[in-house]
Structure formats: structure tokens, C-alpha cells
Amino acid sequence: MSLPSVTATLLQSGGALPEWTALAPTLALALTALALLLVDSISPETKNNALLAGTTAVGSFVSLAFSGWYLAAGTGQSGTGGEIVLYGEALVVDGMYLFFSAIFASVAAMVAIASYDYLAGKEYQGEFYALTMLAATGMTLMASANSLASAFVALELASLPSYALVAFLKKNKGSVEAGLKYFLIGALSSAIFVFGISLVYAVTGSLLFSDVAEALGETELVGVAGVGVLMIAGGFAFKTASVPFHFWAPEAYEGAPAPISGFLSSASKAAGFAVAFRVFVEAFSLSAIPEGINWVILFQILAVVTMTLGNFAAATQDTVKRMLAYSSIGQAGYVLIGLAALAGGASSQNGDVMGAAMAHLFVYGFMNTGAFLFIALTEHWGIGRTFEDFNGLASKAPMACAAMALFMFSLAGLPVGGGFFSKYFLFANAVFAGFWWLAALGAINSALSLFYYSRVVKAMWIEDATSEFEIRSKPVGLYAGIMIAAVGTFLLLPAFGPIIETAQTAASALFGA
């Protein structure tokens, strides 16, 4: 028996390893955050960015290693005894938790490496890295939540550091304004979310997902329960930047430090979907929820409106960073197909379509984070924000521009990176589930997205420079972060098979398949 298999068996059976060690991906991030706070408390004025960025990156890679190891070992999965339930059933460790934890750790590592150069000479660096790790910790707990209470606490743990990170550039009016708007809309959405939880609790008498599902199947208060489900869906719409709670995203992404824009648009979005998948599949199960509460129709509407509005808005933008912000809203619309294309009885098809959405989020973590890190690189060089400002940039920085072209084409779904297969499997599984019209609308929107993504490539590689600019440095950290994202995006094209299989296996377990 291999070492990973032994580890999984020990965790599952309560042997030599205590069950709480199954949360090692979360604990690695939390301990890293505490270590960064300790360094900052000892030397609050430190600008030793190598130490801070290195500690953050190492902690992220350790978390990623645990996630990969446990996934390979089958920890919390059907082959080794099923999910591991912890702390009075508040948290659960299974394939979905481990899969999403790998996404969060990957994005956090790239952001930490790129921030080595981006934060050079700036104040409050210790706080920046500590807040990033605390937000990532909250995101992993969102993926592990097994009750509405732990889901809300985890969501707040992920959100509160994010507000501060968006407003991190304290002398930049745009950053502070973006942080304030993000906080105000976030406070409103949290109030809506927690009020929805209170209504569900009033109807069911429990916050545990399994108990909620059982009680909803017997309740006569269908109207109250329906309003509660609707308000909880609104809370998730905010976290995933879905319409109509998307207004904060363009402002926050444009005003925030570019690495944080990538972190929020990739990891934070994935965290919102992780907890939404778990809540609506387990707590509001289609097999148990009253007929009068059809949340699938709600997500079908959200998917169509979100992908359409996001793509059309992105096509009209003049600045690249704001275009990427609206593009991320459109991408959220694609992932919503993972909930919008579910059916009442076909558990295997449900697992396939939700798993395809999870796999798209995995690839999206690399290509979208890489795109925002490229924006961070141009900000470091002092290049402008508009498409025209990027004219002729490839002649000065061919490697970075080649990586950006890869990100753009992969986000559009062309067969140059993992984004091609992730969209293909997502739309194909929607068709197999009988929702061909969702797949058709997704394909049309993807074709539209090629227009504005190609504008970036055209400016960098085809257009002549409209003004003289000089690249005075090749920042190692930013280049390393971009190259890691580019290699990951490219390799996920031939290596997409294991990713989609792992994601669909994890998703199918939620449906009991």
C-alpha cells in the first residue's frame, strides 16, 4: 500500500493521525497568516519583502501539496470510507473541499510571488500578506462548510480581509473608493444572506445541511422557505460577482492592486461557487425541496443574464483592467451553468455538469490570475491603462506579451490552453443534461468574448506604438508569477483529463453517485 493510501486510511479510520489533520490545507494557510502577523508585530516597519513574500509562497505551496496529496490518496472520498465530518458536523472534508483548496492555494502562491516586486518600497507589506492568507483560509473553510452557520462565518472571514486588500493603496483615491464601495455592497449582501439563513432556520429548526434538507421536504411554510432560499442565493451572487450583485466587481478590480484583482476574481469567485454548490445540492436538494421552490430556474436566469451582460459590457470598455473585470462577470455566468443545468433525477449527469464547472474554475484560476498579473507588470512599468497604451508592447517585452496572448485566447476558449477543454466539457455536459439552449448561449457569448480579448493581442503584437516608452527593469517576481500561470494554462490543455475526472468524481459524491 502506498504512503498516500496509508495516510487516507489512517485519517478515515481515526488511526495514528487525528481526524483534524484532514484540514491540513486550511491549517497551512492559517498558520502562515499567524507567522506573518508575528513577523509584523516584531518588526512592524519591516520592508523585507523577500521574507514576507517567501513565507506566503511557501505556506501556499504547502497547502497545495496537502490538497494534491489528499486528493491522490482519496481522503474523504468514497474509496476510503467517504467524507470526514468534523466539529459537530460544522465542517466536512471531501473531494470538493480538497479540489477547491488546490485552486485557492495555487492562486495565492502566484499572487504572493508577483507581489514581491509589486509591493517593493510600499508600507504595510506584512499586513498585505497576512490579510491575503487570512482571506485564503476563509475560502477553504467556505468549501468545507457543512452548515449555514459555518458557511456564513467562513464567508465573512474571506470577505473582511478582502475589503482591506482592495483599499490597500491608501494614497490612491481609486483604491480607497473601490474598497469603500466593496465594503458597503458586501455589508448589504451579508445582511441579505444572514436574513435568508434566519428564515430557513425558522422553517427547519436546524442549520446543518442534512437536517435542513430533511425538514424542507416536510415543511408547509413553502413561502417563507422560498424567500429564505432566494435571499441566500443573493448572498452567493455577490460573492461570485453575478448579476444583479455584480456592481462592486468593476470598481473593486479596477481600483485594487492588480495582484489582488486577480486574487479576488479567481480565488474569491471560486470560493463563492464552492459553498453555493454545497448548499444548493445538499441543503436545498432537488429531491427533497418542495415543488414550489424551483431554484434551478433562478440560476438559469442568472446564468443567461450574467454571461450576456458581462460580455457585452466588457466589449465596450476602453481600459484593459476594467475589461478584465467585466470579463470575469461573464465567466461567472458560464460557471453558473453548473447549477442551472441540474435535473431532478439524473445524479450522474448532475455530477458531470457540476464537475465541469469546477474544472473550468480550476483552469480559470491560472489564466485569469495570469492576466491580472500582466496588468500588475504594466502598472509597475508605468504603462497606461487603455488598449492603445499597449500598442507595440510586444517589441519591448515579448515573453510577457506572449503569455498575455495565451491567457486571452484561452479565456476566449481557443485551443491554445486549458480554457478550450474546460468550456467544451462545460457546454457539452449541459447539452447531455438536456439544456442545449444554455450551452448555445454560452457558445455565442464565448464568440463575442473573442472580440475584446483579441483587442489586447492586436494592440501588443500588431499595432505600432503610439508613444515612446522604456522598460527599465524585468521584475523577477512578476515575471515568475506570470510564467507560472502561463505554464499552468498551457499544460492544462493536454493534462485536462485528470482534472475533469477528479472534479466530476468530487461533484458526483454530493449527489450520492
From TrEMBL:
Keyword Transmembrane: yes
Residue ranges occupied by any NADH:quinone oxidoreductase/Mrp antiporter transmembrane domain in the UniProt entry: 145-449
Primary localisation category: membrane
Ranges annotated as spanning the membrane: 20-39, 51-72, 96-116, 128-145, 151-170, 182-209, 221-238, 270-289, 295-316, 323-345, 357-378, 399-421, 427-453, 476-496
GO cellular component: membrane
Localisation: Membrane
Protein name: NADH-quinone oxidoreductase subunit N
UniProt source species: Halobium salinum
Native organism taxonomy: Archaea, Methanobacteriati, Methanobacteriota, Stenosarchaea group, Halobacteria
